Amino acid sequence: MKNLVLKKNATANNFVKPYSPNRAVDGSIMPIRRWLADTVPTWIAVDMGAKYWIGSWRVRHMPIAGWPAEYVISDFKLQGSFDLINWFDIDSVSNNTSTVTSREFTPVQARYVRFIVMKGLQVNPHLASLMDLAVYETAPPVSADLANLSLSDGELSPSFTKDTTNYTADVDYDTDSIRVTPRAEDARATIKVNGIEVESGQASQAVNLSAGATTTINVEVIGEDGESKKIYTVEVTRKAALYLDNLIVKSGFSALTLSPEFDKRVNTYTTNAGGLPSVNVIPTSDDGNIKVNGSEVISGQLSSAISLSNEITNIRVDVISSTGDTNEYIVKVSKNS
């Protein structure tokens, strides 16, 4: 195990010269190579130089260098930080009587560590003196969690958190396939999307989506140990097509000219009735029910007559899915030429 604080830069809120905090991390247990503070509480902090996973620590007290047994620190703890501002507790010891304190803890990641004395030497609780501090690197914990999961289209609901495994997403009809991008919390983990391995942080293979249906995407994360596993599920619903396949506006036996020419993805048109009092429309669609100005019309059949005003008359044609989604087309008809 690597001692991550050995001969690294150490600072303290208090020390008695020449017993600087750097002496507590130089690896020596010579009597003069120690840190000494004359107020308690007190602390020393060490910059490990980078973010590391740590899982154990060791404190060697003054008796290791020949002092009596009561020259051990009573109450102390280890903290971690990424920025020297926000600190979190890692491990703590109370009523210590050991010359060497060696402890393990659940692995955590940190850039900085801080040794805090809450109660000093048994022989004098107002003094703190430390021979040697060691903090040891450990392997990252095995994780089958995702750190992030995103979609090429649509939004996850609810928003992603690693502890939530079931999601939904809605996409438009024009989205006929989708890719997911999973990123593992543990870089050693294996990720499979619908059974096909995907590199962490990279987009998956395209998953085909059926119109008006829900497609299930399973993202399996397998921990480095091969035993830790977690499955995230995304239910993606693609909207029904809701397009007209054709739209004809007729006056008598004649079809009026639409501008622009009909295209199912264009929703607004104009035409001129040439002075005629009414028109009919023939809408065609295989994607849903059709209503013309609120009245149902069978696909491919003639609507009832629509009277025209002397101004512009708007004719609304709706394509409606079984779930109530609507695509609206508007034809603006001028009565006079």
Description:
The chain is an all-beta fold. The chain has 3 domains: 10-137, Jelly Rolls (Sandwich); 146-238, Sandwich (Immunoglobulin-like); 246-334, Immunoglobulin-like, CATH 2.60.40. Helix content is 0%, strand content 49%. It has strands at 10-12, 35-37, 42-60, 73-81, 87-93, 100-121, 128-130, 132-137, 146-151, 166-171, 177-178, 180-184, 190-193, 196-198, 207-208, 214-222, 229-238, 246-251, 254-255, 268-272, 278-284, 289-292, 295-297, 306-307, 312-320, 326-334. Strands 1, 3, 4, 5, 6 and 8 form a 6-stranded antiparallel β-sheet that branches. Strand 16 and strand 17 form a beta hairpin. It is rod-shaped. The protein starts with 9 loop residues before the first strand and ends with a strand.
Approximate shape: rod-shaped
Order of helices and strands: EEEEEEEEEEEEEEEEEEEEEEEEEE
The structure class reads mainly beta
Number of strands: 26
Q: Architecture of the largest domain, according to CATH?
A: Sandwich
**Count of distinct structural domains:** 3
Quickly count the helices: 0
Proportion of helical residues: under 10%
Distance between the termini: 91 Å
Kindly provide the radius of gyration, computed on alpha-carbon positions and rounded to a whole number of angstroms.
36 Å
* Rounded average pLDDT: 95
From the structure above, extract its key features.
337 residues; mainly beta; Jelly Rolls; Immunoglobulin-like; 3 domains; six-stranded antiparallel β-sheet; five-stranded mixed β-sheet; 26 strands; 49% strand; rod-shaped
